[in-house]
Amino acid sequence: MSPRSARPVIRKAAPALLLAACVLAGSCSRTPTSPNDASWRMLPGHVEAFADAGFRAGRKCWIYLPPSYSVSADRYPVLYVTDGEDVFDDGGQMHVNRICEDLIRQGEIRPIIVVAIENATRGQRFWELAPWHDYRFGDGGGGGQFLLGIRDTLKPSIDHHYRTLPDSANTAIAGVSLGGLFAGYAGMLYGGTFGNVAAFSPSYWLDGYHLERIADSLGFFLPQRIRRYYQDTGSGYDNYIDGMTGVLLRDGFQPGVNFLSITAAGGDHTYGAWGHRYPEALKFLFGTSPDANR
Q1: Are 217 and 252 in contact (CB under 8 A)?
Q2: Distance (Å, rounded) from C-alpha 161 to C-alpha 119?
Q3: Cβ distance 285 to 79 under 8 Å?
Q4: d(Cα 263, Cα 242) in Å, to the nearest integer?
Q5: Residue 136: what pLDDT?
Q6: Are the beta carbons of 139 and 161 closer than 8 angstroms?
Q7: What is the pTM (predicted TM-score) of this model?
Q8: Which fold has domain 20-293?
Q9: What pLDDT shows up at residue 292?
């Protein structure tokens, strides 16, 4: 089930707890183009294809390398993103390469590498991203294996082929809708690898909000595992996140310090909405301010 066709769960009214309801202006151009069309920028970054035969039988990935990669020996933080075909220009809908480039140029985030992982074959996305079977859909349960493949095969290969900062504080995972649930699951189970999470309109409802119960069971250990946790949703027809907000606050996360939860006024469950909210997530996870590097 793809985010395009999924019927997101209608949000319940937000509690008095939290957080910001805002419309985030996009900081990137909306004109689709090839990710390597450099006519709109100086010293551009680069997007290239990558595959490792050991990861999902050579599953295709696209790698964004920041502008300074080709002219320095620096090492870089890495963001892993699911639904990779929708991440960059040239067919994608979120234009994350342009967003990164703008934020890097403006000094709002550190230069980063982005690894966009291709979706599973048609009809298999739900199985691959859902960590548990959900009786309402009669599907799911392959998320654990997919996550181990990213952790144990893809990430070591990326660290070998590219100049990365491989520690958990410099490694993030992000996704939209069911991929947002998957990202949260990755941080909770393997925060020693994925220390930063960006969950866009996450499908926390899967299997009766099972991820909330996992978070609750981890308790005060969770902020020790996850350096930064970002989540968002739209104010309209989008997924409910306030239950997870309550759990994470009880676990000891501090809003604006290691936790950011956004309800975007007028936002909905679409790639365009997620693209507009991407800059805020990147600034929270990879910002250049002293607080952002804590």
Answers
A1: no
A2: 22
A3: yes
A4: 10
A5: 78
A6: no
A7: 0.87
A8: Rossmann fold (3.40.50)
A9: 62
Phi/psi of residue 173, each to 5°?
-135, 140
Q: Cα angle at 72 between 68 and 76, to 5 degrees?
A: 65
Of 186, 182, 153, 130, nearest to 57 by C-alpha is: 153
Q: What is the tens place of the pLDDT at every residue in 73-123?
A: 999 999 999 999 999 987 668 999 999 999 999 999 999 999 999 998 877
Domain ranges of the chain: 20-293
- Chain centroid to CA 291: 20
pLDDT of residue 185: 98
Residue 294 pLDDT grade (very low, low, confident, very high; cuts 50, 70, 90) = low
Please give the helix or strand (H or E) that residue 196 lies within, else none: strand 196-200
Q: CA torsion sign, 55 to 56 to 57 to 63?
A: negative
Helices within the chain (DSSP H only): 96-105, 125-129, 143-149, 155-161, 178-189, 206-218, 222-225, 242-250, 271-286
Average pLDDT for the chain: 87
**Is 70 exceeded by the pLDDT of residue 291?**
no
Dump the DSSP string for 25-63. Answer: PP-S------TT--TTSSS--EEEEE--TTSTTT--EEE
User: For residue 247, which of 215, 222, 220 has the smallest C-alpha distance?
Assistant: 215
CA separation for the pair 83, 22 (Å, rounded): 25
Q: How far apart are CA 272 and CA 278, in angstroms?
A: 10
Q: Which two tokens stand for residue 21?
A: 């309801």
**CA 133/CA 129 separation, integer angstroms:** 11
- 6, 259 Cβ separation under 8 angstroms: no
